[in-house]
Design a protein that fits this description.
The structure holds 2 protein chains of 2 kinds. By secondary structure, chain A is mainly alpha-helical. Chain A has 10 helices and no strands. Chain A is flat. Chain A starts with a helix and ends in a 10-residue tail after the last helix. The two termini of chain B are about 25 Å apart. Chain B is α/β, with parallel strands linked by helices. In chain B, a hairpin with a 2-residue loop joins strand 8 and strand 9. The longest helix of chain B has 18 residues. The chains are: A mainly alpha, B alpha/beta. Chains A and B meet through helix 7 and helix 8 of A and loops of B.
Chain lengths: ~260, ~260
C-alpha cells in the first residue's frame, strides 16, 4: 500500500517541473514580460485548444497524423525486424545485406525529402515511405545486436537438451534479444514522430504538421504552440506505451523487478 | 580393480561395499578406445584408453589446459574425436542419456526456476507430467518451494542446484560434470558435494566429474584419473567407505599420491 503511494508520488514528481514552468510562463505573459506575438500565454493556447477541439479540426488532424505514423511504423518496423532476425540468425544473409544497409543507414533519411517529393508528390506514400525508412534502422540495428548478443553458452545448453531450431529461437534467442529490441522500439517511436512532423510540415494537406504550417501563415501563434505541445504529449504517450510493454515482457530482468 | 592399491594400505577399511559389491562390475557405461583430439593441429588428447563401469563415480583431474574438459565434451557428444572411438555401453545408446553440467549454471534468466528444470525433459515429456516431475526433482535438490522464482533472485549455489535438477530430471545414465562447483565458495562447495553424493547414491547414474580440486575428487570419486599433457598419467581407485569424512587421513593419503603425480615429486 505504501509502495503504491510512493510510486504515485514519484511519478507526480516528474510532472512538477513542467507544471511550475507553465505557471511561470502564464504569470510572465500576463505581466507583459513575454509579448503575445512571441509566445502566447498558456491560457490563450488552452483557448485555441477548445476552439479546435469543438470544430472537430483537431481530432481529425490528430487522427490522420497518428494513422500515418503507425502505418509507417508497422511497415518499417516489420521490415527492420525481419531483416534483423535474418541477419542475426544467418551469416550468409548478413554478409549479403549488412554492408549495403549500413551504407544506407548513414544517409540522413530526411535528406531524401526532395527526392521523395519528386517520386511520390505530396501524397500519403511520401510520408509513409519516410516514416518507414526512419523507423527501419533503429529496429533493424537493435534486433541484430540483440540476437548477436545472446549468450552462446545458453544456446549451447539448449542444443544439448535437444531443443529444435524453432524451440531454440522461441525459448532462448528471441527472449535473449528482447531487451535490445525494446531499446530499438523506443528509439524508433521517437524517430517516427520526428519524421512525420517534418514531412507534414514540408508537404501535406492535412495532419498536425499541416495544421501548424497553416497557422503560421495566418499568424495564429497560439495554434502553432498548441501543435508543438501536442507533439510532446503524443511522443510521451508512445514512449509510455513502449515502457509498459517492456515492463510486462521483461519481468524476469533484475532491472524491472519491483521487489 | 587394482589390488595393489588396496594391499598397499591394508590398514584401511575394506573397500566401500556400495561401490564394489552391489554394482555389477562388468557392465560398461562407456569406453574411450585410443581416442585422440586435435584442435588446429595441436594435440589436446592422445592415446586415451578408459573403461568406466555403470554406476561408477569417476573424477578426472589435471592442471588447466591438460585436456580434461575436452575429454568431457567428447563424452557428452559436444565434440567428435579426431581419431579412435568412444563406445557407449548397452544401456545408453541414446544421446539423451548423457547430460552435462557446467561451471556456470546456464539457466534461462527469462524462465522461472521450474520452467528451467523442465528444459531437461525437452523431447521426453511435456505438460502436466513434466511439471510434476520438475517439482519432485526440485524437492530432491532442496529447492521445493522455489519453483516460481526467477533465477536472478537465487544464490550461486541454489542456481547450481537448479542446473543439477535440470540435468537429472531426464534420468541420464551418465552425468558429466565440468567443474560444476568451481565458482562456489568453500562452504557451499562442501554442501553441494554432499548433495551430489547423496543424489548419485539414490539415482545410480555414472558420474564423471572434471575438477581441479584434488580434495573434492578423493572425497567423491570411486576412481580418480589424472590427465597430464593430454595423456592419462594415473588411474587410481579410492577404496574408502562412504560416507566419507572431509580431510580424513585415508583421503589425505590418496590426495597426496595424486598431488605427487601432478607435480612429479
Amino acid at each position: 500500500m505504501t509502495g503504491t503511494l510512493s510510486n504515485l508520488g514519484r511519478s507526480a514528481l516528474g510532472w512538477l517541473l513542467p507544471a511550475a514552468l507553465l505557471a511561470g510562463w502564464e504569470v510572465a505573459s500576463r505581466a507583459g514580460l513575454i509579448p503575445g506575438n512571441v509566445l502566447p500565454a498558456p491560457s490563450a493556447v488552452g483557448e485555441a485548444f477548445w476552439k479546435l477541439l469543438w470544430s472537430g479540426e483537431l481530432v481529425e488532424n490528430i487522427r490522420i497524423s497518428t494513422l500515418r505514423a503507425l502505418s509507417g511504423f508497422v511497415i518499417g518496423g516489420a521490415i527492420g525486424f525481419s531483416l534483423g532476425l535474418a541477419n542475426g540468425l544467418s551469416a550468409l544473409s548478413r554478409e549479403l545485406t549488412d554492408t549495403t544497409l549500413q551504407m544506407i543507414r548513414n544517409i540522413p533519411h530526411l535528406a531524401l525529402i526532395p527526392l521523395v517529393i519528386l517520386w511520390f508528390g505530396i501524397d500519403e506514400q511520401a510520408k509513409l515511405f519516410l516514416v518507414a525508412l526512419g523507423v527501419f534502422f533503429p529496429i533493424y540495428v537493435n534486433t541484430l545486436l540483440g540476437i548477436q548478443g545472446v549468450d552462446p553458452q545458453l544456446v549451447e545448453m539448449g542444443r544439448i537438451y535437444g531443443m529444435s531450431r524453432t524451440e531454440l529461437f522461441l525459448r532462448v534467442i528471441l527472449p535473449g534479444a528482447l531487451p535490445s529490441i525494446f531499446v530499438g522500439l523506443r528509439y524508433a517511436l521517437g524517430i517516427m514522430w520526428l519524421t512525420l512532423i517534418v514531412a507534414e510540415t514540408i508537404s501535406a494537406s492535412s495532419g498536425l504538421g499541416y495544421m501548424a504550417m497553416q497557422a503560421r501563415e495566418f499568424l495564429l501563434i497560439d495554434v502553432v504552440v498548441l501543435s508543438i505541445l501536442i507533439y510532446a504529449l503524443l511522443g510521451k504517450l508512445a514512449d509510455s506505451l513502449a515502457r509498459f510493454l517492456e515492463r510486462i515482457s521483461l519481468q524476469w530482468h533484475p532491472a524491472y523487478q519491483t521487489v | 580393480m587394482t589390488a595393489a592399491t588396496i594391499t598397499a594400505r591394508q590398514s584401511f577399511a575394506a573397500p566401500s561395499a556400495r561401490a564394489y559389491a552391489t554394482r555389477p562390475a562388468g557392465t560398461l557405461a562407456f569406453s574411450f578406445r585410443n581416442v585422440a583430439k586435435q584442435f588446429g593441429g595441436k594435440a589436446v588428447l592422445q592415446g586415451i584408453n578408459l573403461d568406466v563401469h555403470e554406476g561408477q563415480f569417476i573424477a578426472v583431474i589435471g592442471k588447466s589446459g591438460c585436456g580434461k574438459s575436452t575429454l568431457l565434451r567428447l563424452l557428452a557428444g559436444l565434440d567428435k574425436p579426431t581419431s579412435g572411438e568412444l563406445v557407449h555401453g548397452s544401456g545408453s545408446h541414446d544421446d539423451k542419456r548423457t547430460r552435462i553440467m557446467f561451471q556456470e549454471p546456464r539457466l534461462l534468466p527469462w524462465a522461472r526456476v521450474s520452467r528451467n528444470v523442465e528444459i531437461g525433459l525437452t523431447g521426453i515429456e511435456k505438460g502436466e507430467a513434466a511439471r510434476k516431475k520438475g517439482l519432485d526433482i526440485l524437492a530432491e535438490v532442496g529447492l521445493a518451494d522455489r519453483g516460481g522464482e526467477w533465477p536472478s533472485v537465487l544464490s550461486g549455489g541454489q542456481r547450481q542446484r537448479v542446473a543439477l535438477a535440470r540435468a537429472l530430471i531426464g534420468h541420464p545414465s551418465i552425468l558429466a560434470l565440468d567443474e560444476p562447483l568451481g565458482a562456489l565458495d568453500a562452504l557451499t562447495r562442501i554442501e553441494m558435494q554432499q548433495l551430489l553424493e547423496r543424489i548419485w547414491i539414490a539415482k545410480k547414474f555414472t558420474a564423471v566429474l572434471v575438477t581441479h580440486d584434488v580434495a573434492e575428487a578423493v572425497a567423491l570419486a570411486d576412481r580418480v584419473v589424472v590427465i597430464d599433457g593430454g595423456r592419462i598419467a594415473l588411474d587410481l581407485e579410492i577404496p574408502v567407505e562412504r560416507p566419507r569424512r572431509h580431510a580424513s587421513p585415508e583421503l589425505a593419503f590418496f590426495e597426496r599420491q595424486i598431488l605427487d603425480k601432478l607435480y612429479n615429486r
